[in-house]
Design brief:
This protein is mainly beta. Strand 14 and strand 15 form a beta hairpin. The protein starts with a strand and ends with a helix.
């Protein structure tokens, strides 16, 4: 089966003709298997990825299939399985091969080698031979030349901290390497120089520049005058300086190399000082790329003492922040004015190769309030160049305010001799997740007169994010009458409570006449035909004269009555079955 095939479109065509050796198939039956395919070798393929599938069947209808992809790209070239768009170039990982795609599928490749002043690196996703640090690219001939870098790298001005200055030995604690900063005066009790404990060629002082830097030379100076000694009338102390020295450089502080002379064979001997104060400049024959610089005195006046500075290429290129989060929009947490926001922190790189630490006022997982917040990440490289990038976090409030203390529906009759009724209620209040005070407005106000009918009272509020909340209740104004236990009694009618313990007559509007009430022992509180009152219990009859309930007469008495009384007995029996006719039956009994 062919492997996947990648090819650019044919010149001046939107397709590419692709060929391959067709596969074959075998079977345990020994029969010859014919293969069919959705594409054939030699066909033109359009731009994109095409799956070519071969399928076969044996005599038992068992099926076999296999596929490969044909990828047609825009016009260009393939080199080392890498696609090069037309008109662009390619360089191998080790920069030893460079290819230009000047015509489709026809790369022009040449051997390549970085110059001595170049290094094969990938910068900003592009690999090629770049000028080493401390060198610049001449736009005319495309070659790298040593830069005239003579910037002070931070010993004198304190950018390099004390702990980055070390020495082989010290005379005592007052003669340590931190005193070796160029132009440092003698400040009691310390002295203005580093002074070795011994006078031999094994002594050295070195600086850790923190990162690889293009170094071009050093400045050297003798031990500072001891001002205190001169004030006391003594001689100047102390006439000490280095007259000759060598310089070593290292990338890791372990493997050291001498700065070589112009013949590139011998360690170069540099001229030192002839007095205590003069600054002597010594430039290297060629720029060296190093992190550590070590001065090794080989000759001196009186004693090994010196102050120094390192010259080199000042790095003006800021660090680069990558993988910066996109702007984030999020809603508040329910019942809160905030939201917790998380993101993947960005990273930073620098041409120095140093690890860059990014700082930000905000960090992933922080709580953010409503509004838009700018999150800025900032980094500083070893040369104090800064880089920064920002994104925004926007927290929106989509939660409406909440109204509480809303009155229940109110029912009231019109005021006496009025067509309206004045209605009052305690106004509701509103709260919001933002914590802001919410003002409510209403279509009616407490204390207003309301006319006959049903009126919907609505309170509305808006929070600072324009989310609206509203709630309503009804005010019902009825015709003249009375209200008892929230029940409306029309004028001239009465009301009895559910348990028949209270009876009220509405004789004048809004002025019910209520009396306590109690059912007798022979009565029961019931609702019959939508009327609730004290009714006679079953087996009892209502005396129309005194309105009380009495037990029935002994049935044996009725057997002695005339036929007319027998008729009454039947009526009485009917009353037993239909208690709602009881009063009528009793009336008939009274006339018998």
């Amino acid at each position: 089966m062919p492997s996947d095939i990648s090819k650019a479109t044919d010149p001046n065509q939107a397709t590419a003709v692709v060929t391959w050796p067709p596969p074959t198939a075998s079977d345990n039956s020994g029969e010859q298997i014919a293969l069919t395919s959705n594409y054939n070798s030699g066909e033109p393929f359009g731009y994109g990825i095409h799956e070519v599938t071969y399928t076969g069947k044996d005599p038992s209808n068992n099926e076999c299939s296999a596929s490969f992809n044909v990828t047609i790209t825009a016009p260009g070239c393939f080199v080392d399985s890498n696609f090069i768009p037309l008109g662009e170039s390619y360089i191998s990982t080790d920069c030893t091969k460079k290819c230009n795609c000047t015509s489709a599928n026809n790369p022009d490749c040449q051997s390549n080698e970085c110059d001595d002043n170049e290094v094969c690196e990938e910068r900003k996703n592009i690999r090629k031979c770049y000028c080493k640090r401390g060198f610049f690219l001449d736009s005319k001939d495309g070659k790298c030349y040593a830069a005239a870098c003579q910037a002070s790298l931070g010993i004198e001005d304190g950018r390099i901290p004390d702990n980055k200055l070390t020495a082989s030995t010290v005379w005592d604690d007052y003669h340590g390497p931190s005193n070796a900063r160029l132009n440092r005066p003698a400040e009691y009790p310390t002295v203005g120089s580093w002074s070795a404990k011994y006078n031999n060629i094994s002594q050295w002082i070195q600086v850790d520049l923190g990162v690889l830097v293009g170094v071009t030379g050093v400045l050297i100076q003798g031990r500072a005058y001891n001002v205190d000694a001169r004030l006391l009338g003594g001689s100047d102390c102390c006439p000490q300086w280095v007259t000759e020295f060598k310089v070593q450089h290292s990338n890791d502080g372990i493997d050291w190399h001498y700065v070589l002379s112009h013949n590139n064979q011998d360690a170069m001997i540099f001229d030192g000082n002839t007095d205590q104060t003069t600054v002597v400049t010594n430039l290297f024959p060629t720029l060296v790329e190093a992190r550590f610089i070590r001065i090794q005195p080989t000759a001196w006046n009186v004693h090994i003492s010196l102050r120094f500075e390192v010259l080199g290429c000042q790095d003006d290129e800021p660090c680069v922040i990558s993988d910066m989060p996109l702007d984030i929009s999020q809603t508040t947490v329910p019942n809160q004015a905030t939201a917790v926001v998380t993101w993947t922190p960005p990273t930073a790189s620098d041409n120095s190769g140093a690890q860059i630490t990014l700082t930000s006022y905000h960090k992933s997982g922080d709580t953010f309030g409503i509004g838009t917040h700018v999150v800025t990440y900032t980094g500083t490289d070893p040369s104090n160049n800064t880089c920064s990038a920002s994104f925004t976090v926007t927290i929106t409030d989509e939660e409406p305010c909440a109204i509480s203390g809303m009155p229940s529906d109110i029912s009231k009759a019109t005021d006496p001799n009025q067509a309206t009724a004045v209605v009052t209620w305690p106004p509701p209040t509103a709260s919001d997740n933002s914590g802001e005070q919410i003002a409510l407005t209403s279509n009616y106000n407490s204390g207003e007169p309301f006319g006959y009918g049903i009126h919907e009272v609505t309170y509305t509020g808006k929070d600072p994010s324009n989310n609206e909340c509203s709630a309503s209740f009804n005010v019902t104004i009825t015709a003249p009458g009375c209200f008892v236990d929230s029940n409306f009694i029309p004028l001239g009618e009465s009301y009895i409570s559910t348990d028949c313990t209270k009876k009220c007559n509405c004789t004048s509007a809004n002025n019910p006449d209520c009396q306590s009430n109690e059912c007798d022992d022979n009565e029961v509180c019931e609702e019959r035909k939508n009327i609730r009152k004290c009714y006679c219990k079953r087996g009892f009859f209502l005396d129309s004269k005194d309105g009380k309930c009495y037990g029935t007469v002994n049935m044996s008495y009725y057997y002695t009555l005339t036929m007319k009384c027998v008729k009454f007995e039947r009526i009485y029996a009917n009353v037993i079955a239909r208690e709602d006719s009881f009063l009528i039956a009793e009336t008939e009994n009274a006339t018998v």
